[in-house]
Amino acid sequence: MEPDLLKSSLFHADQRLCSAEILPPSQVRARIEVAVLNFLKNLTASNPAISDLPLISRKYDNSGLRHGLLSDVSSVFLSHSVCTRSLMKANDAKAFVRVWMVMAMCFRILVQGKLATQRELFYKLLCDAPEYFRSQRQVNRTVQDVVALLRCTRHSLGIMASSRGAVIGRMVLEILLPWESTYRTTKDFENISTEPGEQIVDCSMIGHAGYAITGDLCTLSKLVLHSDARYIIIIEKDAIFQRLAEDHFFNQIPCILITSKGYPDIATRFLLHRISQTFPDMTILALMDWNPAGLAILSTYKFGSITTGLESYRYACNVKWLGLRADDLQIIPQQVMMQLKPHEIKTAKSLMSSKLLQERYQAELSLMVERGHRAEIEALYCHGFDFLGKYIAKKIVQADYI
Question: What is the pTM assigned to this prediction?
């Protein structure tokens, strides 16, 4: 790497690819302090200047797809191209100030030994500086700016994922608790014993809504997982997830069902990755709507995203596309097909221009745009409410996934 490129960033650990490190609070605080000292040093120099903030660029032209050497997992990565936040540029000044305010807030959170969600962060910043923070999106973008500046993960900053995810099926979780344990005997895993300070959750014996995935990645990392499942099925929609849970589909096909109720949050992706690492022989399948958004959601689970490109490799999984796909349209009545909306066509074009999609995925996307319509999973109910499980089971038995 060129020397000037190394100097263009506060922190550099990987000479080929950029990544965000998982760091203890003391090291994150130290990095924030270094940033402050560098700023003050330039401000009090003989030729005072307000230094720009060098951030790893989160743009398409600074991204790529990294293929695993010893696995089939590929992930989005960011290279070393740098963009800046500058107080001296009129259209950048507020973004510059936001970075410092979020860093200050993270520093206080870390000193207190707490965790905060991005939503909590937004309301606190809205109260403290409404002229700088008017939307959740501004906070989310600024948090990613801080990650790109300090090269540490969002969770290392004391920011906890707001998880929407749920899991159900043939898996037992051992959860370490700081208080006295609660114990429930499990039907299929009698050999699991509990010690004081542990809780057992049998994910096959809970309500249809599933087990809510915590946003605390530290808690998720400490889970002890047990399972006799052969498949993990990612479900795009909560309603479909609950239908399969109510039908106890996981007992028909030994599987674990997981959902993030739309675009995946970090916590759901983290748990999915943990399950796949613990049980590497499990096949991961995805059930999505046949539309550009469904494929975008699948791609996020499979590769990660450019927005979180510094962390994507930590959560990427080898996901196979189960359905809906173009071959399934023959069993869906024409009258339940829906027209693609302008924003969906825009999503499709963005995906088609990316480096992520393999040839067969590109072909599916092209067909969506060519036909100009989409199909939702619920369209299968034309054949009865019990048809969904039969459809999935048949495709799994026939290994009909790509």
Answer: 0.86
